[in-house]
Write a structure and sequence with these properties.
Strand order of the largest sheet: 1-2
Number of helices: 22
Largest sheet: 2 strands, antiparallel
Shape: globular
Oligomer: single chain
Radius of gyration: 24 Å
Helix content: 55-70%
Structural class: mainly alpha
Length: 505
C-alpha cells in the first residue's frame, strides 16, 4: 500500500459512482435494459469497452449527426453556365437551420485567396448607407491562422484531387469539412478531459458527449478549439502541472479570449487556500504563451491585430443579449440611444465591463467566506456564466463554453440536460427570426422570449452552484468534512487521494 503524507496508509480512492443508483434520470433510463445495476453485478469484465471508450463513441456519433445537420448548407447546384455554386438559394441556411459562420467567412475574410494573409491584407466593406470600412481578420490570432491553414489545406486537397480520385467539391465545401475534422477532434479532447478530471464519475463525461448543444453548435463556429485548450489547461492544473496549464489557457485565449477568464477562479481558489505557487505559475504560463502567439502579429500588423478588439468595442447589443431583449420588450433606446453605423456604444461597453467587475468581486467574496475552499470548477462556471449573462454579445456557440464547466460544477443529469435542450432549441426561433416575417419567418418575440428562458435557466444553475459553495454538504463531489478539490493540485502529491482505476463495463 502506498504510504500517505504522514507515513500511514494512503487515503482510499473515492467511491465509484454508479449513475443508475445516484441519478434519477439514469435510473429511469436503465429500465429499458432491465433496471439499475445490481448489487452483485460483475463490473470490469470487458477488455475493450471501458467507460471512456463508450463515451468517446457516443461523442463521435453526436458529432457525426451534427455534421449531417450542417450538410444541408453544403449542397451544390449547376448554374446556367455549367459551373457549380453553393446552394444557399431562398435563404436555405435559415430554412434548413444549417447555418455555420465557417461558410460565409471563407469568402468574406479572403480565405479563398491564397495570396492573402490574415491581419496583413485588408478588404473594404460597404454598409447599407454607402459608407466604407477597412476590415481585417476579425478573430483572435490563433483562430485566424487556424482558418487560414485549413483554407490552404483545402487548396492542397483539391490540387491532389485533380490528379487522383479523391472526394472533391467546391473549395468552401472542402474547407468546411477539414475544419469540421479538427473541431470534432477538439471536442473529443474536451470529453476526454472531463473524464480525466472525474475518474470516479466517468459517466459524467457522457453529458458532454451527447449534449444537444454539441449536436447543434459543434460546427457553427470555431469555439470547440478554445474549449479544448481551456479544459486541457484545467486538467494540467489539477495534475500539478500549473505551467503547462497556464500555457494551454494562454493558447486558448489566443483562440477565443474566454479561456483567460479561467485565470480568475484559479487566483480566487489559490488565495483562499493560501497556495500562491500554482497561481503565479499558471498566470505566468498563460501570459507567456498568449504573448508568444500575439506579439509577432501585433508588431508586424498592428491594425490587423487590433481588429478583433475594435470590432468588439463597436458592436451594439446583439439580439442574443439581455440588453437587446429589454430594449425590444420595453421600447427603451438603450444606454447610448440610437447609434449610427460603426458608432461605439461607449456607455454600454462601460456598463457591461462594470457589471462583470462587480460580479467577479462578489465571487471573490464568496470564495473567501465560503465554509470550505470552493471547488475550482464551481467558480470557473460562475465566472464564465456571469460573463455571458452581462455581456452585450452571446453568440449561440458561446454556450459550448459552459457545457463542460457545468458538468464539472453541478453533475445533475436531469437538470443539465434540460438546460442544454432549451439552449439548443433557441436555434430554431433564431433561424426563423433571421429569415424575416416577409419570408414566412418568425417575429422577434419568439426568439427574444427563448433567449430570456435560456438566460433564466443559466441563472438557476448559477444559484445552485452558489448554494453548493455555501453548503458543501450538498455538493456531490465533496466528501463530508473534506476540503479536497479534484480540480486543484494537492499541496503534497501523497496527500491526494489515489484516482479510481478505470472501470471496464
Amino acid at each position: 500500500m502506498r504510504p500517505g503524507a504522514g507515513g500511514g496508509p494512503a487515503p482510499r480512492p473515492p467511491a465509484r459512482v454508479v449513475p443508475s443508483w445516484a441519478e434519477p434520470l439514469a435510473a429511469s433510463a436503465s429500465r429499458v435494459v432491465g433496471g439499475p445495476l445490481g448489487r452483485h453485478a460483475l463490473v470490469g469484465r470487458s477488455r475493450f469497452w471501458t467507460p471512456l471508450r463508450v463515451v468517446l463513441l457516443m461523442a463521435v456519433v453526436v458529432l457525426a449527426m451534427s455534421w449531417l445537420g450542417k450538410s444541408a448548407c453544403l449542397q451544390q447546384y449547376p448554374t446556367a453556365d455549367g459551373t457549380l455554386a453553393l446552394d444557399w438559394q431562398n435563404s436555405r441556411q435559415y430554412v434548413a437551420m444549417c447555418y455555420s459562420d465557417t461558410v460565409p467567412l471563407y469568402g468574406i475574410e479572403r480565405l479563398d485567396d491564397p495570396a492573402a494573409l490574415p491581419y496583413r491584407d485588408p478588404w473594404t466593406e460597404t454598409a447599407q448607407d454607402g459608407s466604407e470600412t477597412v476590415r481585417y481578420m476579425e478573430y483572435p490570432v490563433l483562430t485566424g491562422f487556424f482558418q487560414w491553414a485549413n483554407a490552404r489545406l483545402a487548396d492542397g486537397w483539391l490540387a491532389v484531387a485533380s490528379h487522383v480520385p479523391l472526394p472533391s467539391g467546391l473549395p468552401v465545401v472542402v474547407y468546411f469539412d477539414l475544419v469540421a475534422v479538427w473541431l470534432a477532434l477538439s471536442w473529443l479532447v474536451v470529453v476526454r478531459s472531463v473524464h480525466r478530471l472525474r475518474p470516479h464519475r466517468p459517466w459524467d463525461a457522457a453529458l458532454v458527449a451527447i449534449s444537444p448543444l454539441v449536436l447543434v453548435h459543434a460546427f457553427t463556429n470555431f469555439d470547440a478549439l478554445a474549449v479544448a485548450f481551456a479544459l486541457g489547461g484545467l486538467v494540467a492544473v489539477a495534475r500539478r502541472r500549473p505551467v503547462l496549464g497556464g500555457i494551454l489557457l494562454g493558447l486558448g485565449g489566443a483562440a477565443k479570449l474566454y479561456p483567460l477568464l479561467l485565470l480568475l477562479p484559479v487566483i480566487m481558489v489559490g488565495l483562499r487556500r493560501r497556495e500562491p505557487g500554482p497561481v503565479w505559475r499558471t498566470v505566468v504560463g498563460a501570459a507567456v504563451s498568449w504573448l508568444a502567439v500575439n506579439l509577432p502579429v501585433a508588431v508586424a500588423y498592428p491594425a490587423g491585430w487590433w481588429e478583433f478588439f475594435r470590432l468588439n468595442q463597436s458592436r451594439p447589443a446583439d439580439p442574443d443579449s439581455l440588453y437587446y431583449a429589454l430594449s425590444y420588450f420595453t421600447g427603451w433606446d438603450g444606454f447610448d440611444g440610437p447609434l449610427k453605423h460603426g458608432e461605439v456604444p461607449v456607455i454600454l461597453d462601460a456598463v457591461t465591463a462594470g457589471l462583470f467587475v462587480v460580479v467577479c468581486a462578489g465571487l471573490a467574496v464568496l470564495a473567501a467566506r465560503a465554509p470550505r475552499p470552493p471547488r475550482l470548477a464551481s467558480l470557473a462556471f460562475l465566472v464564465v456564466a456571469a460573463f455571458l449573462l452581462v455581456n452585450k454579445v452571446w453568440s449561440p456557440q458561446y454556450s459550448l463554453w459552459l457545457v463542460p464547466l457545468a458538468v464539472l460544477a453541478l453533475p445533475r443529469w436531469r437538470l443539465l440536460l434540460a438546460w442544454m435542450a432549451v439552449d439548443a432549441l433557441v436555434w430554431v426561433p433564431r433561424m426563423f427570426y433571421y429569415l424575416g416575417t416577409d419570408h414566412k419567418g418568425l417575429p422577434p418575440d419568439w426568439f427574444l422570449g427563448a433567449v430570456l428562458v435560456r438566460d433564466a435557466f443559466v441563472v438557476v444553475l448559477c444559484v445552485l452552484v452558489v448554494r453548493s459553495v455555501l453548503r458543501p454538504e450538498t455538493d456531490p463531489l465533496r466528501a463530508p468534512g473534506s476540503a479536497a478539490d479534484p480540480d486543484w493540485p494537492a499541496a503534497d502529491a501523497d496527500a491526494r487521494p489515489v484516482p479510481a482505476s478505470v472501470v471496464r463495463v
